[in-house]
Amino acid sequence: MQDTSDADSFTSNLSSTHSATSSVYDFVEEHGRTYHKYKQGKYILPNDIEEQNRLDLQHQMALKVLEGRLHLAPIQNTVKNALDVATGTGIWAIEFAQQYPYASVTGTDLSPIQPEFIPDNCKFEVDDAEDEWVFSKQFDYIHIRFVMTCFPNPKVVIEHAFKSCAPGGYLEMMDGVFPLHCHDDSLEDTVLESWSKGCHEAGTKMGRPWDNAPNYKRWMEEVGFEDVKERIFEVPTNPWPRGRRAKELGMWFNADLQEALSASRVLYIKVLEWAPEKTDAFLQEVKSDLMKREIHAYMLIHVLYGRKPLQ
Ligand SMILES: C[S@@+](CC[C@H](N)C(=O)[O-])C[C@H]1O[C@@H](n2cnc3c(N)ncnc32)[C@H](O)[C@@H]1O
Protein backbone atom coordinates (compact mmCIF):
# COMPACT_ATOMS: atom_id res chain seq x y z
CA MET A 1 0.00 0.00 0.00
CA GLN A 2 1.07 3.58 -0.48
CA ASP A 3 0.34 6.59 1.69
CA THR A 4 -0.74 9.20 -0.86
CA SER A 5 1.01 11.96 1.06
CA ASP A 6 4.27 10.35 -0.10
CA ALA A 7 3.01 9.27 -3.48
CA ASP A 8 5.56 11.11 -5.60
CA SER A 9 8.29 8.81 -4.37
CA PHE A 10 6.26 5.71 -5.11
CA THR A 11 7.73 3.28 -7.57
CA SER A 12 5.40 0.80 -9.18
CA ASN A 13 6.68 -2.77 -9.25
CA LEU A 14 3.48 -4.33 -10.37
CA SER A 15 3.67 -5.23 -13.96
CA SER A 16 6.01 -5.04 -16.86
CA THR A 17 3.60 -2.66 -18.59
CA HIS A 18 4.38 -0.02 -15.96
CA SER A 19 7.51 2.04 -16.15
CA ALA A 20 9.64 1.74 -13.03
CA THR A 21 9.07 5.40 -12.27
CA SER A 22 5.33 5.55 -12.74
CA SER A 23 3.61 7.36 -9.91
CA VAL A 24 0.36 6.43 -8.27
CA TYR A 25 -0.75 9.90 -9.32
CA ASP A 26 -0.54 9.00 -13.02
CA PHE A 27 -3.83 8.29 -14.70
CA VAL A 28 -4.50 6.50 -17.95
CA GLU A 29 -6.54 8.42 -20.53
CA GLU A 30 -8.88 6.75 -22.97
CA HIS A 31 -11.80 8.08 -25.04
CA GLY A 32 -11.73 11.37 -23.08
CA ARG A 33 -11.97 9.76 -19.63
CA THR A 34 -9.21 8.89 -17.15
CA TYR A 35 -8.63 5.61 -15.30
CA HIS A 36 -6.43 4.43 -12.44
CA LYS A 37 -2.79 3.69 -13.24
CA TYR A 38 -1.83 1.68 -10.16
CA LYS A 39 -2.64 -1.91 -11.18
CA GLN A 40 -3.93 -0.50 -14.44
CA GLY A 41 -7.02 -2.18 -15.84
CA LYS A 42 -8.20 -3.80 -12.58
CA TYR A 43 -11.20 -1.50 -12.20
CA ILE A 44 -13.24 -0.70 -15.28
CA LEU A 45 -14.90 2.63 -14.36
CA PRO A 46 -13.21 6.04 -14.76
CA ASN A 47 -11.71 8.13 -11.93
CA ASP A 48 -11.97 11.67 -13.38
CA ILE A 49 -13.87 14.67 -12.01
CA GLU A 50 -17.06 13.56 -13.76
CA GLU A 51 -16.92 10.19 -11.97
CA GLN A 52 -15.87 11.79 -8.70
CA ASN A 53 -18.96 14.02 -8.87
CA ARG A 54 -21.05 10.93 -9.46
CA LEU A 55 -19.54 9.17 -6.42
CA ASP A 56 -20.28 12.20 -4.25
CA LEU A 57 -23.89 12.22 -5.52
CA GLN A 58 -24.10 8.51 -4.80
CA HIS A 59 -22.89 9.23 -1.27
CA GLN A 60 -25.85 11.60 -0.78
CA MET A 61 -28.16 8.87 -2.02
CA ALA A 62 -26.57 6.41 0.46
CA LEU A 63 -27.08 8.89 3.31
CA LYS A 64 -30.71 9.27 2.26
CA VAL A 65 -31.12 5.47 2.34
CA LEU A 66 -29.74 5.37 5.91
CA GLU A 67 -31.76 8.44 6.94
CA GLY A 68 -28.70 10.62 7.35
CA ARG A 69 -26.52 8.05 9.10
CA LEU A 70 -23.04 7.05 7.97
CA HIS A 71 -23.46 3.52 9.36
CA LEU A 72 -25.96 1.15 10.95
CA ALA A 73 -23.52 -0.93 13.02
CA PRO A 74 -23.82 -0.14 16.75
CA ILE A 75 -20.29 1.20 17.07
CA GLN A 76 -19.37 3.12 20.18
CA ASN A 77 -18.36 6.76 20.31
CA THR A 78 -15.06 5.35 21.53
CA VAL A 79 -14.28 3.82 18.11
CA LYS A 80 -10.50 4.05 17.74
CA ASN A 81 -9.47 2.81 14.33
CA ALA A 82 -11.73 2.78 11.28
CA LEU A 83 -10.99 1.65 7.73
CA ASP A 84 -12.91 2.52 4.56
CA VAL A 85 -12.02 0.05 1.81
CA ALA A 86 -12.29 1.25 -1.83
CA THR A 87 -13.00 4.72 -0.48
CA GLY A 88 -13.40 6.48 -3.86
CA THR A 89 -13.35 10.24 -3.27
CA GLY A 90 -13.06 9.54 0.46
CA ILE A 91 -16.26 11.46 1.18
CA TRP A 92 -17.57 8.82 3.59
CA ALA A 93 -14.21 8.53 5.41
CA ILE A 94 -13.91 12.31 5.80
CA GLU A 95 -17.43 12.64 7.22
CA PHE A 96 -16.84 9.67 9.53
CA ALA A 97 -13.61 11.31 10.77
CA GLN A 98 -15.55 14.50 11.46
CA GLN A 99 -18.28 12.63 13.29
CA TYR A 100 -15.78 10.64 15.39
CA PRO A 101 -12.93 13.10 16.02
CA TYR A 102 -11.17 10.66 18.40
CA ALA A 103 -11.06 7.91 15.77
CA SER A 104 -8.18 7.44 13.39
CA VAL A 105 -9.72 6.86 9.94
CA THR A 106 -7.90 5.28 6.98
CA GLY A 107 -9.33 5.16 3.46
CA THR A 108 -7.78 2.96 0.76
CA ASP A 109 -8.32 2.84 -2.99
CA LEU A 110 -6.59 2.03 -6.28
CA SER A 111 -7.05 5.70 -7.26
CA PRO A 112 -5.57 8.63 -5.31
CA ILE A 113 -8.58 10.84 -6.01
CA GLN A 114 -9.20 11.99 -2.44
CA PRO A 115 -8.97 15.69 -1.55
CA GLU A 116 -5.85 17.25 -0.12
CA PHE A 117 -7.47 19.11 2.77
CA ILE A 118 -8.87 16.54 5.14
CA PRO A 119 -9.40 16.24 8.90
CA ASP A 120 -6.23 15.51 10.91
CA ASN A 121 -7.61 12.16 12.00
CA CYS A 122 -8.11 10.95 8.41
CA LYS A 123 -5.59 9.63 5.89
CA PHE A 124 -5.67 7.90 2.54
CA GLU A 125 -3.51 5.17 1.03
CA VAL A 126 -3.31 3.67 -2.42
CA ASP A 127 -3.92 -0.02 -1.96
CA ASP A 128 -5.41 -3.02 -3.71
CA ALA A 129 -7.99 -4.55 -1.35
CA GLU A 130 -7.48 -7.94 -2.96
CA ASP A 131 -3.82 -8.07 -1.87
CA GLU A 132 -2.95 -9.35 1.61
CA TRP A 133 -3.78 -6.61 4.12
CA VAL A 134 -0.61 -5.55 5.93
CA PHE A 135 -1.91 -2.82 8.22
CA SER A 136 0.12 -2.36 11.39
CA LYS A 137 -3.06 -2.25 13.46
CA GLN A 138 -6.45 -3.86 13.72
CA PHE A 139 -9.60 -1.86 13.08
CA ASP A 140 -12.63 -1.76 15.30
CA TYR A 141 -14.81 -0.70 12.38
CA ILE A 142 -14.37 -1.56 8.68
CA HIS A 143 -16.64 -0.09 6.02
CA ILE A 144 -17.03 -1.31 2.43
CA ARG A 145 -19.54 0.41 0.15
CA PHE A 146 -20.56 0.22 -3.53
CA VAL A 147 -18.00 -2.30 -4.71
CA MET A 148 -20.24 -4.34 -7.02
CA THR A 149 -18.02 -3.50 -10.00
CA CYS A 150 -14.76 -4.22 -8.18
CA PHE A 151 -13.82 -7.69 -7.03
CA PRO A 152 -13.84 -11.04 -8.85
CA ASN A 153 -14.05 -12.69 -5.43
CA PRO A 154 -15.57 -10.38 -2.82
CA LYS A 155 -15.36 -13.15 -0.20
CA VAL A 156 -11.56 -12.83 -0.26
CA VAL A 157 -11.91 -9.14 0.66
CA ILE A 158 -14.37 -10.07 3.43
CA GLU A 159 -11.79 -12.58 4.73
CA HIS A 160 -9.11 -9.87 4.74
CA ALA A 161 -11.53 -7.65 6.67
CA PHE A 162 -12.12 -10.40 9.22
CA LYS A 163 -8.37 -10.80 9.83
CA SER A 164 -7.85 -7.04 10.17
CA CYS A 165 -10.87 -6.52 12.40
CA ALA A 166 -10.26 -6.24 16.15
CA PRO A 167 -12.14 -8.73 18.36
CA GLY A 168 -15.57 -7.20 19.04
CA GLY A 169 -15.16 -4.89 16.02
CA TYR A 170 -17.58 -4.62 13.10
CA LEU A 171 -17.56 -4.99 9.33
CA GLU A 172 -20.33 -3.04 7.56
CA MET A 173 -21.12 -3.42 3.87
CA MET A 174 -23.53 -1.53 1.63
CA ASP A 175 -24.05 -2.46 -1.99
CA GLY A 176 -26.54 -2.37 -4.81
CA VAL A 177 -27.79 -5.14 -7.09
CA PHE A 178 -28.16 -5.01 -10.87
CA PRO A 179 -30.17 -5.65 -13.04
CA LEU A 180 -32.89 -3.27 -11.86
CA HIS A 181 -36.12 -4.64 -10.38
CA CYS A 182 -39.75 -3.66 -10.90
CA HIS A 183 -42.98 -4.51 -9.06
CA ASP A 184 -45.09 -4.47 -12.25
CA ASP A 185 -44.39 -5.01 -15.95
CA SER A 186 -43.52 -1.37 -16.70
CA LEU A 187 -39.78 -2.07 -16.96
CA GLU A 188 -40.25 -4.98 -19.33
CA ASP A 189 -38.76 -4.50 -22.82
CA THR A 190 -37.64 -0.94 -22.09
CA VAL A 191 -34.25 0.42 -23.05
CA LEU A 192 -33.65 1.04 -19.35
CA GLU A 193 -34.11 -2.67 -18.65
CA SER A 194 -31.81 -3.54 -21.51
CA TRP A 195 -29.15 -1.13 -20.14
CA SER A 196 -29.25 -2.54 -16.62
CA LYS A 197 -29.04 -6.09 -17.98
CA GLY A 198 -26.18 -5.02 -20.28
CA CYS A 199 -24.19 -3.61 -17.33
CA HIS A 200 -24.73 -6.83 -15.42
CA GLU A 201 -23.74 -8.87 -18.49
CA ALA A 202 -20.54 -6.83 -18.92
CA GLY A 203 -19.72 -7.28 -15.22
CA THR A 204 -20.30 -11.03 -15.51
CA LYS A 205 -18.11 -11.20 -18.63
CA MET A 206 -15.36 -9.51 -16.61
CA GLY A 207 -15.82 -11.98 -13.75
CA ARG A 208 -17.46 -9.32 -11.56
CA PRO A 209 -21.21 -9.95 -11.65
CA TRP A 210 -23.24 -7.06 -10.27
CA ASP A 211 -25.58 -9.24 -8.22
CA ASN A 212 -23.22 -10.35 -5.43
CA ALA A 213 -24.78 -8.41 -2.55
CA PRO A 214 -27.35 -11.13 -1.69
CA ASN A 215 -24.35 -13.42 -0.93
CA TYR A 216 -22.63 -11.01 1.47
CA LYS A 217 -24.47 -12.19 4.60
CA ARG A 218 -23.53 -15.83 4.00
CA TRP A 219 -19.93 -14.92 3.17
CA MET A 220 -19.62 -12.76 6.28
CA GLU A 221 -20.93 -15.61 8.42
CA GLU A 222 -18.71 -18.17 6.70
CA VAL A 223 -15.53 -16.19 7.40
CA GLY A 224 -16.49 -15.85 11.08
CA PHE A 225 -18.52 -12.68 11.66
CA GLU A 226 -21.35 -13.22 14.13
CA ASP A 227 -24.74 -11.68 14.69
CA VAL A 228 -24.82 -10.50 11.06
CA LYS A 229 -27.77 -8.17 10.48
CA GLU A 230 -29.07 -7.30 7.03
CA ARG A 231 -31.50 -4.71 5.75
CA ILE A 232 -32.62 -4.45 2.16
CA PHE A 233 -33.84 -1.15 0.70
CA GLU A 234 -35.67 -0.37 -2.56
CA VAL A 235 -34.29 2.73 -4.26
CA PRO A 236 -36.48 4.06 -7.11
CA THR A 237 -34.83 5.18 -10.35
CA ASN A 238 -36.71 8.51 -10.28
CA PRO A 239 -39.42 10.10 -8.12
CA TRP A 240 -42.10 7.76 -9.52
CA PRO A 241 -43.39 6.42 -6.18
CA ARG A 242 -45.67 8.25 -3.80
CA GLY A 243 -44.31 9.50 -0.50
CA ARG A 244 -41.70 12.08 0.36
CA ARG A 245 -38.88 9.70 1.34
CA ALA A 246 -39.28 7.54 -1.78
CA LYS A 247 -39.45 10.63 -4.01
CA GLU A 248 -36.29 12.10 -2.47
CA LEU A 249 -34.49 8.77 -2.81
CA GLY A 250 -35.62 8.62 -6.44
CA MET A 251 -34.29 12.12 -7.13
CA TRP A 252 -30.85 11.31 -5.71
CA PHE A 253 -30.63 7.96 -7.45
CA ASN A 254 -31.77 9.49 -10.72
CA ALA A 255 -28.99 12.10 -10.51
CA ASP A 256 -26.48 9.30 -9.80
CA LEU A 257 -27.79 7.22 -12.72
CA GLN A 258 -27.68 10.14 -15.16
CA GLU A 259 -23.95 10.46 -14.41
CA ALA A 260 -23.48 6.68 -14.40
CA LEU A 261 -24.63 6.45 -18.02
CA SER A 262 -21.48 8.00 -19.43
CA ALA A 263 -19.31 5.96 -17.04
CA SER A 264 -21.06 2.83 -18.32
CA ARG A 265 -20.08 3.67 -21.92
CA VAL A 266 -16.78 1.85 -21.40
CA LEU A 267 -18.66 -1.34 -20.46
CA TYR A 268 -20.51 -1.38 -23.74
CA ILE A 269 -17.58 -0.42 -25.94
CA LYS A 270 -14.75 -2.34 -24.29
CA VAL A 271 -16.48 -5.32 -22.76
CA LEU A 272 -19.60 -5.92 -24.86
CA GLU A 273 -17.77 -4.66 -27.97
CA TRP A 274 -20.49 -2.35 -29.22
CA ALA A 275 -19.59 0.37 -31.76
CA PRO A 276 -19.21 3.81 -30.11
CA GLU A 277 -21.97 5.35 -32.29
CA LYS A 278 -24.43 2.58 -31.42
CA THR A 279 -23.51 2.90 -27.72
CA ASP A 280 -24.02 6.67 -27.68
CA ALA A 281 -27.42 6.44 -29.40
CA PHE A 282 -28.46 3.70 -26.97
CA LEU A 283 -27.35 5.71 -23.92
CA GLN A 284 -29.39 8.69 -25.14
CA GLU A 285 -32.46 6.47 -25.18
CA VAL A 286 -31.65 5.19 -21.68
CA LYS A 287 -31.36 8.80 -20.51
CA SER A 288 -34.86 9.49 -21.73
CA ASP A 289 -36.25 6.27 -20.15
CA LEU A 290 -34.70 7.29 -16.84
CA MET A 291 -37.01 10.31 -16.75
CA LYS A 292 -40.20 8.33 -17.38
CA ARG A 293 -42.27 8.06 -14.22
CA GLU A 294 -44.41 5.38 -15.81
CA ILE A 295 -41.41 3.00 -15.51
CA HIS A 296 -41.57 1.76 -11.92
CA ALA A 297 -38.01 0.52 -11.63
CA TYR A 298 -35.88 0.35 -8.51
CA MET A 299 -32.53 -0.96 -7.34
CA LEU A 300 -32.13 -3.16 -4.29
CA ILE A 301 -29.49 -2.00 -1.82
CA HIS A 302 -28.25 -4.42 0.84
CA VAL A 303 -26.79 -3.06 4.09
CA LEU A 304 -25.16 -5.52 6.47
CA TYR A 305 -23.05 -5.49 9.56
CA GLY A 306 -21.52 -8.23 11.66
CA ARG A 307 -19.23 -8.48 14.65
CA LYS A 308 -15.94 -10.31 15.01
CA PRO A 309 -16.20 -12.60 18.05
CA LEU A 310 -14.31 -11.51 21.15
CA GLN A 311 -12.64 -14.91 21.43
C1 LIG B 1 -18.19 2.78 -7.05
S1 LIG B 1 -16.73 3.36 -6.26
C2 LIG B 1 -17.25 3.45 -4.55
C3 LIG B 1 -16.45 4.43 -3.75
C4 LIG B 1 -16.82 4.54 -2.26
N1 LIG B 1 -16.76 3.26 -1.58
C5 LIG B 1 -18.16 5.17 -2.04
O1 LIG B 1 -19.10 4.48 -1.63
O2 LIG B 1 -18.30 6.39 -2.30
C6 LIG B 1 -15.68 1.94 -6.26
C7 LIG B 1 -14.27 2.28 -5.83
O3 LIG B 1 -13.56 1.05 -5.66
C8 LIG B 1 -12.21 1.25 -6.03
N2 LIG B 1 -11.62 -0.07 -6.28
C9 LIG B 1 -11.90 -0.92 -7.29
N3 LIG B 1 -11.18 -2.05 -7.18
C10 LIG B 1 -10.41 -1.90 -6.07
C11 LIG B 1 -9.43 -2.71 -5.44
N4 LIG B 1 -9.10 -3.92 -5.94
N5 LIG B 1 -8.82 -2.25 -4.33
C12 LIG B 1 -9.14 -1.02 -3.84
N6 LIG B 1 -10.05 -0.20 -4.39
C13 LIG B 1 -10.68 -0.64 -5.50
C14 LIG B 1 -12.33 2.13 -7.26
O4 LIG B 1 -11.12 2.79 -7.55
C15 LIG B 1 -13.47 3.08 -6.86
O5 LIG B 1 -12.96 4.24 -6.26
Nutshell version of this structure?
GO terms for molecular function: methyltransferase activity. The protein has 311 residues and is of the alpha/beta class.
Q: What does this 3D model show about the protein?
A:
This protein is an alpha/beta fold and 311 residues long. It has one domain: Vaccinia Virus protein VP39 (Rossmann fold, 3-Layer(aba) Sandwich), CATH 3.40.50. It is built from seven helices and ten strands. The strands form two sheets. An eight-stranded mixed sheet has the order 1-6-5-4-7-8-10-9. The chain has a two-stranded antiparallel ribbon with strand order 2-3. Strand 4, helix 2 and strand 5 form a beta-alpha-beta unit. Helix 3 packs across helix 5 and helix 6 runs antiparallel to helix 7. The chain binds S-adenosylmethionine. The site of S-adenosylmethionine (SAM) has 22 residues, from helix 1, helix 2 and strand 5. It comes from Hyaloscypha variabilis (strain UAMH 11265 / GT02V1 / F) (Meliniomyces variabilis). GO terms for molecular function: methyltransferase activity.
For the largest beta sheet, what order do the strands appear in spatially? 1-6-5-4-7-8-10-9
Give the class from helix and strand content and strand pairing. alpha/beta
Helix content: 25-40%
Mean pLDDT: 91
Describe the main β-sheet briefly. 8 strands, mixed
Q: Give the overall silhouette.
A: globular
